Amino acid sequence: MNESQTYAIVDIETTGHSPANGDRMIQIAIVLMQDWQIIKTYTTFIHPGKSIPLFIQDLTNITDDDVKDAMPFEAHAEYIFELLQGAVFVAHNTDFDLSFLQAEFKRAGLPKWYGKKIDTVELAKILFPMSLSYKLGDLANDLNIPLESAHRADDDALATAYLLKHCWQQLLSLPLLTIEQLHKRSFRLKTNLAQLFFDVLVVKRAKALDENEHVYFNKIAIRKMAPTPKINSEMLTFPSTTEEKLSLLQKAIVDFEERPKQFQMMDSIWQTLNTKSEHVIEASTGIGKTLGYLVPAIIYAKQTGKKIGVSSYTAHLLDQLLQNEIPTLEQALGQPIKIALLKGMNHYIDLEKFEQLLKSPDDSYDETFTILQTLVWLAKTETGDLNELNVSGGGQLLLDKIRKTTLPKTTMPLYDFYSRAIQNSRQAEIIVTNHAMLLSDLVRNEQIFDSMAGWIIDEAHQFIQAAISHDEKLFTYMNWKYLFGQIGTYEDEQLFYQLRRAALKKHLINMPMLQQIEKRFIQMVQAFDHAIATLYQHVKVAEKNEPKQGQKFAIFISQLNLPMDVFSKVSNVVQQWIDEAHHITQQFTSGVEELAPEHQYLIDQWRYWVREYTMKLAEWDEVFLEKDEHYSCWLELDRRSVPGSIQLFKKPIDVTQTIAKLMNPIREKSSIIWTSGTLTVPNNERFITNQLGIDTSIPIEKLHAPASYYDGAKAIVVTDMPDIQGVSQSDYIEEVAHAVTNTVRMTNGRCFVLFTSQEMLRKTVELIHESELLSDYMIFAQGVTPGSRMRLLKSFQKFNHSVLFGTNSFWEGVDVPGDGLAAVIVVRLPFSSPEEPTFKARSQFIQQQGRNAFTELSLPEAILRFKQGFGRLIRSSHDKGVFIVLDRRIETKSYGHEFIQSLPPISVQKLPLDSMVQQLGNWYNE
After folding, report:
1. How far are the Cα atoms of 302, 354, 723, 781 from residue 831, in angstroms, in the given order?
2. CB-hemisphere CA count at 13 Å for 342?
3. HSE-up (13 A, CA, CB side) for residue 574
4. Which of 84, 230, 437, 750 is the most exposed place for a label (fewest CB within 10 A)?
C-alpha cells in the first residue's frame, strides 16, 4: 500500500440485524478519503420494501415518509460496488456493515466484494485504551469530532472518517518503538490494521524524530515522569473572616454563593489542625463539604510545610477531587498545589512482569489485543494505574497477571509507577488516598504515612465497611482449580511439561527429582478434592435441617463439625510441593551461567506460580484451620453448580480493634477529622463513632444545610400498600410494579427504585418487562443488566427516559449527581436481610452479650441507608425531587418515626397510591 491509499468509510442504517430474515437497508453513506482528505461523499435513502419498525424510526429519525420515494437496493448496487473497488473498507463495526452489504450484493446478483478492511472500533480500542466507551457518539464527543445526528448514515460515516484520521494522527504521535511492537503483534487482529501500522512506521522512520517525552525500559516506551511544580513561596494566611473567605473563593468560582455552614466547617477544621486534636463533623449535602475541608488543609500544609492526608471510600470521589476541586483552589490561591494520589500497590502495573509476558509465545486474541492496548497506554499514562484501561473480560485476566504484587528490590521511580507514586507523595503537600490503602498501611513494611500532620477521613461511615473488607479472607474452589491447571502434570502439557522438557534437554535436573515432584503434585490435587468432597457431604447433612432457600445456600462453618485432619492434610501436602518446587528452581538456575530468554521466561513463570500457591496455602490455613472468635466464617454455594460455586468467607465481627490499631499511633502525633454526610441516627447518635473507636468525649458537630435548600423536596408515604406478611410474594410484587410504573410515567422517568432483596428486584423487573407498561423507557437493573455499578449509573444518566433498580448495596460508596433525578422509590425499608452472614454473625455477637441486636445494629444501619437514599435526591438548592416510601411499617411500627425523623425538615405526606400519582402529576407539571 502507498501513501495515497483510498479508504471507503461506510455506514448503513437498516430495519434490523438479519438480511436473511428479510431485514433491509434504509440508508447508506460512503465517504472516500485519500491522503487523509475527503475526496468524495455519497449518500442515499433506500426503500426497504416494508415499513420501518418504530424503535428503528426512534433510533435513526428515518421515517417511512423519508424513504417512500427511494429506490430499492438493487437500483444502487452496481454503483456502490464500483465505489468500493480498490479501496480499504472502513466501518465502525465492520462485522455488521460489511456482512450486511455482502448479503445485499449477493441478493442483487453481484459477486462478493474482496478487499482489505479496517474496523474503527478495533482500532480506537487500541489507540484510545482509556476511553470509557467505544460507541461512535461517545468517541466523537471525547475527540471533538462533529456528529450532528448519531444513527444517521451520512453523519455517522463522516464522523467515522474523522475518527480514522484522528487514529492516524494518534499513531504518528506514538514513539517509534511502540509502533514497531504494535505492528509485530497485529497479524492476529480481526481487521487489516497491520498495514496501517506499517504505513506509520514508514513515515516515522523517514523522519528522524526527537523523542524526549519517553523513557525506555527494555524496549518498552513509557511516558516520562512529570517534573514537580515549583511552588512560589508567597505566604498564605487562613481567611478567618467571612469577607476574606468570600473574596478568596469568588476569585475562582463564578456566582459563588456564601454558605455559612461551609465557612463554619473551614474554621472548625483549621482549629483542629492547629491544636493537633480529633474532631467529628456530620456535613449534610448542600454545605459544600469538600471545599470545606480542602481550604484549611491546603493552607495549613503550605504554611507549616507538613503533609495532610485525605482519605475517601470510592475511587470516583478521588478522581472528582483531582479534576474539579483542586484546579479551582489553585486558581483561588494563585499558586499550584503539590498533590499526590496514592492507591494500593496492586492498582499499578509491574513492568517486569509485563516485559516477561511480551516474550511469552502464542497469545489468544483477547491477550494480544490487551497487550496492544497496554503498550499504547504506557506511552500515555501518567499514573500507571491499571484501572485507567478499558479492557474486555478476557483482558482483565491478563491485567491480573501484570499487577504489582511485591515491592521493587530497588526503588526505580524512572520505570516503576508505584515507586513514582511514593516519590510524588514524599514531595506532596496533600496526599489523596482511599480507606483501603490507609488500612493496608498497617501491614506495609515502609510506613508511607508516618510523616503526616493530619488526616481528613471523608465518607467516614464507610471506614467500617473498608475495615471489614480489608480484613476478610476468601477461599474459592475455582481459584484453586485454576492454579492446579496452570502447573499440570506431564500429560497436561502445561507449565510443568515445558519445564521438564527444558530441564532434561539441558541436563539441569535429574529424572527422579522431576518424577518425585509430579507425584507430589498428584497427591496435592487428590487431597484437595477429597477435602472438598468431605466439605460438601457435611453441607448436605446440615442442609436437611435448614429451610430450603432458592438455589443459593449459605452456612456457618461452625455448624458443620468438619474433621480437621482432612483439611490439615491438604495444608501439609501443599507445603511439601512448595518446598520441592523451590528446590527445582535452584537446580534449574544453578547449573548455567546465563539462561536463554525462553528458559528465563519459563523459570520466572514457575516462580510466579509457586508464590501464588504460597499465598493460597496461607488462605487455606486461615479459613479452615485457625479458630478465632473475632471472626465469622461461612460457606456459600449455588446448588446448580457444585463444587464449582463453593466459596468461603471469613470476616471480622467487630472491626473497632482493627481501626484502633491503625488510628492510635496517628492520634499520638497528628490531628484527625472524621466527616461524612451521614454520621448519626436519631436515638443512637454515636452508632458510627463508637464503631470507629472515637472517644465519647469528642462531640459530633452537625452542619446541616438551611431548610430552604430542601424547598424542592418532599416525601410521600403510600398508605394503601398491602402488608407484606399478609399477602403472597407475587401479589406484593404486583402491587410494587403497579406503584413503580405509575410513578415513572408521572415523572417521565429519572427514577431510582431501591429494594432490599435481589430476588424481589428481579421479579419486579420481569413483571414490568412483561406488562410492557414501560416499554418506551430504558430500564437498568443491578444484577440483571450486565455491567458494574458505575457503568449502570453512567448509562442511567445518559438517557432522559430511564429507570434504575438497585438493592441496598447500590448506595454503598456510589455518588450520583442528582440533576435530573426526579424520584427515589423505597420499596422496603433498607434493613439487612437477617440471613446475610456478616450481619447474622454481628447480631449473634451482640445478643451473646445480652444486648439488643435490633436497636443496636439492625435499626441504625437501616436508618443510615435510608438517609443515604434520600441524600441522592437533592444535590443542589435548585433540585426538585420526591422521596416515596412504599413500606407501611414506617407508619405501623413504633420505630417508623425514627426513619422520618432522620430526614431533613421537608413536608411528609401520607396518601393512598391514586392520590399520590395525581399529586405527582400536578407537581411535575407546575
Report:
1. 45, 46, 16, 20
2. 29
3. 27
4. 230
What mean pLDDT do residues 131-157 have? 83
pTM: 0.78
Instruction: List Cα–Cα distances, 169 to 145, 174, 196, 480, 682, in angstroms.
Output: 14, 9, 12, 46, 60
Secondary structure of residue 778 in the 3-state scheme: strand
Residue 732: C-alpha distances to residues 25, 657, 729, 739, 887 (Å): 46, 43, 5, 11, 11
Please tell me whether the peptide bond between 643 and the residue prior to it is cis, using omega within 30 degrees of 0.
Answer: yes
Fold of 6-211: Nucleotidyltransferase; domain 5 (3.30.420)
Q: Give the whole-angstrom CA distance, residue 787 versus residue 121.
A: 19
pLDDT in tens, 291-348: 999 999 999 999 998 999 999 987 667 777 888 888 999 999 988 898 888 887 888 9
Cβ atoms of 589 and 606 within 8 Å: the answer is: no
Q: Where are the domains of the chain?
A: 6-211, 473-652, 707-925
Distance CA 404, CA 422 (A): 14
Read off the C-alpha cell for 403: 499487577
Distances (CA, A) of 164 to 143, 170, 188: 11, 10, 20
Query: For 453-477, what is the mean pLDDT?
Result: 89
Question: Which cell is 383 given?
Answer: 499514573
Rounded to a whole number, what is the distance in angstroms from the first to the last CA of the chain?
64
pLDDT-wise least confident of 115-119, 130-134, 153-157, 494-498: 130-134
Confirm or reject CATH 3.30.390.30 for domain 707-925, answering yes or no: no
Which grid cell sits at 233? 513561596
The single-letter code of the amino acid at 431 is I
- Report DSSP letters for 571-608, one per residue: HHHHHHHHHHHHHHHHHHHHS-SS--HHHHHHHHHHHH
Pairing verdict, β 647-652 and 473-476: antiparallel
How far apart (Å, rounded) are the C-alpha atoms in residues 471 and 436? 10
